[in-house]
Write a structure and sequence with these properties.
Layout lengths: L4 H7 L1 H4 L1 E5 L4 H13 L6 E4 L5 H4 L1 E3 L1 H7 L4 E3 L1 H4 L4 E4 L7 H13 L1 E6 L2 E6 L3 E6 L10 H5 L3 E3 L11 H6 L7 H13 L5 H18 L6 H12 L7 H4 L25 H13 L6 H13 L16 E7 L10 H8 L22 E6 L4 E8 L2 H25 L2 E8 L2 E9 L2 H9 L9 H17 L3 E8 L13 H17 L3 E6 L6 H10 L2 E4 L5 H17 L1
Parallel strand pairs: 1-8, 1-9, 2-5, 5-8, 12-13, 12-15, 15-16, 16-17
Antiparallel strand pairs: 3-4, 6-7, 10-11, 13-14
Helix pairs in contact: 1-3, 1-11, 10-11, 10-12, 10-14, 11-12, 12-14, 15-22, 17-18, 17-22, 19-20, 20-21
């Protein structure tokens, strides 16, 4: 039987870190989790937490009820300490709060936790496996990258593995060794697949040793290393080595069988081992690898609108804990946090008559809220000439798809078309779906290209949105070739110079931008324009409306999370 990731993780949960299960709630995921839990030791803790558990529950701190009852500080350990030597499950991990992710990451790295708060000091070991239940739908909806980096496996459960008895394998695992040439082959395979993190290679080594222990072997075999490359390295691949290899001469034919000799075939060379591991990993590369890599780059580069940033001290929105302050004006008192701050000092304070607890000014805590950013996506569409006409339908489709998403998020979309002698704002910032569709239906095409005027109009809209407290994202759809200058006069050289100046103005204003090269083949002019604007450059020679909408949606989510 070929081991599953669940078998390997149950055998070495702390060493392998854990698994990210990307699947919706359902019987397949539940069956996979049930098999994993069955194969763990009987005493292993199993805890499930929400994605935004408060720090006092996650890390531990003051037991408020016991403290008020006894009149002295009483400590209470958090979930991270309670799950030592077990498994911690995080539901809806794609929505995990950054503070929760940071606490779990630190606990996994240090394998212990020290909490100093509210007059207490708590220290406890925290060695556990993490299971991230990822229910994201879009490719950019992922759990925090820092946590994914610390998990050996990323998979979508389809069938439940058959539980097996791992008691003998647990006893054998510490004695399993790996030949040096196989270790070198794993490292080379990781480099060929574009896996830069050394953690991934270390996880692959541990997975190979676990697979050998399950098979009852004390030395890692080729099949064990191939399985580790498939389960650990393939999901992290950023390039396909098979597509990059130069054509090589065919291998020499195998020697003819000689019935008169009893010689065994020689062991595989390091190069042959590397080819074996690469073949195993390449067979399991994720679909649409290029699309996901582009979206990942887009999300990392298209962030950070200055205006429209989340207001940490807003009075409405998502609760984000409490801070010291007085409940004046619109500030709302955090009662439990106030009591928790006052409880350790009760033995030293004189209580007023008929009062059970003495609260002072410095104990007051007020609630903090984080309001979601509102984002405006400004489409600057080149509607000039025959080169843009055949992409106009795709632009309309992308805007309509994005509008449907914005209607749910209550975000806004604007549309600027540039053709002829100047640019025109066809759709001011709005989230009215019917009005947007009417404007899109009337979007004209043909004529010369006043590219600089289009960029200037988009920048003006972006500045107006930022002054109103909204983040702005400019999506430029053009082939980058201009022939009308800012003043409306024809001339390619002057027009291109004005376009570059307008692009640099976008960059200086700090406006996030994406440039979709709509030419049938990627154009140097479009690339230069994107570099000048500090924009993410995406050549879209075979793009459709769905892919454009996905690209813009990734950047919008990045802005909202900034």
């Amino acid at each position: 039987m070929t081991p599953d990731a669940a078998h390997l993780l149950a055998l070495d949960p702390v060493g392998l870190g854990g698994v990210a299960l990307r699947a919706p709630f359902g019987p397949a995921r539940d069956a996979w989790l049930a098999a994993l839990r069955t194969m763990l030791p009987d005493a292993a803790p199993w805890r499930r937490i929400p994605p935004d558990l408060p720090d006092n529950r996650l890390l531990g701190g003051l037991d408020l009820t016991a403290t008020l009852s006894l009149g002295k500080p009483v400590a209470e350990h958090g979930v991270l300490a309670a799950v030592d030597q077990g498994v911690l499950l995080v539901a809806m991990a794609e929505r995990m709060a950054p503070s929760t992710a940071a606490r779990i990451t630190a606990a996994m790295d240090q394998q212990d936790i020290t909490v100093e708060r509210e007059g207490l000091r708590l220290t406890a070991p925290t060695r556990f496996a993490l299971v991230l239940l990822d229910e994201g739908i879009e490719p950019e909806e992922r759990p925090p990258a820092a946590l994914l980096e610390r998990l050996a496996f990323r998979l979508t459960p389809e069938t439940a593995p058959e539980p097996i008895d791992l008691s003998e394998a647990r006893a054998l695992l510490p004695r399993v060794t790996m030949p040096m040439e196989m270790l070198e082959a794993l490292v080379a395979a990781a480099a060929a697949l574009g896996v830069a993190s050394p953690r991934a290679t270390l996880f692959a080594i541990r997975a190979a040793r676990a697979a050998a222990a399950i098979a009852g072997r004390r030395v890692v075999a080729d099949d064990d290393a191939a399985l580790a490359a498939t389960l650990v390295l393939a999901p992290r691949a950023t390039r396909n080595p098979a597509a990059e290899q130069d054509e090589s001469p065919p291998p020499p034919p195998p020697p003819e069988d000689n019935p008169d000799t009893d010689e065994t075939p020689p062991p595989p060379s390091p190069d042959q081992l590397q080819e074996l591991l690469l073949a195993a990993a390449a067979a399991n590369l994720p679909a649409h690898l290029l699309d996901e890599a582009q979206l990942k780059a887009l999300s990392s580069r298209a962030g950070g609108g200055r205006a429209g940033a989340a207001r940490q001290h807003a009075q409405t929105g998502r609760p984000m804990g409490a801070r010291a302050g007085e409940p004046r004006g619109n500030n709302r008192l955090a009662v439990l946090d106030t009591l928790r701050a006052a409880a350790p000092w009760q033995a030293l304070r004189k209580r007023p008559p008929h009062a059970r607890i003495a609260i002072r000014r410095e104990d007051f805590r007020i609630r903090q809220f984080k309001r979601r950013n509102e984002t405006t996506s400004i489409f600057a569409v080149d509607a000039s000439g025959s080169s843009a006409l055949h992409r106009l339908a795709e632009a309309k489709g992308a805007v309509e798809l994005l509008l449907a998403d914005c209607y749910v998020r209550r975000d806004r979309v604007a549309l600027v078309a540039f053709r002829g002698q100047a640019a025109e704002v066809l759709l001011p910032p709005t989230h009215a779906l019917a009005r947007a569709k009417r404007s899109l239906a009337a979007l004209p095409g043909g004529g010369p290209t006043p590219l600089a005027s289009g960029l200037d109009a988009a920048l003006e809209l972006a500045r107006a949105e930022e002054r109103a407290g909204r983040a702005a994202l400019v999506v430029i759809m053009t082939d980058g070739r201009a022939n009308i200058a800012r003043d409306g006069t024809p001339g390619a050289a002057r027009a291109q110079q004005d376009a570059m100046e307008a692009a640099r103005a976008l960059r200086l204003a700090g406006v996030s931008a994406i440039l979709l090269d709509t030419a049938p083949r990627p154009q140097p002019a479009a690339r230069a324009l994107a570099d000048a604007a500090g924009a993410v450059y995406l050549p879209m020679p075979a793009a459709d409306a769905q892919r454009m909408s996905r690209a813009v949606g990734a950047a919008v989510q990045r802005l909202e999370a900034a």
